[in-house]
Amino acid sequence: MKRREFITLLGGAAAGWPLATHAQQRLHVVGILAPQWAVPLERFERQLRNYGYMDGQNVRFLRRFAEGHEDRYPAMAAELVALPVDLIVTWGTTAALAAKQATNSIPVVMGAIADPVSVGIVPNLAHPNANITGFATQNVDLDVKRLELLKDLVPHLSRVGMLVNGANPVSASSLRVLRPTADRLHIELDIFDASSGEIESTLQRLKNAQPDGVLVAPDLLLLTQRGRIADFFANNKLPAVYPFREYAEVGGLLIHGANLGILFERAADYVDRILKGAKPADLPVQLATEFELIINVKAAAGIGLVVPPTLISRADEVIE
Question: What's the pTM?
Answer without folding.
Answer: 0.86
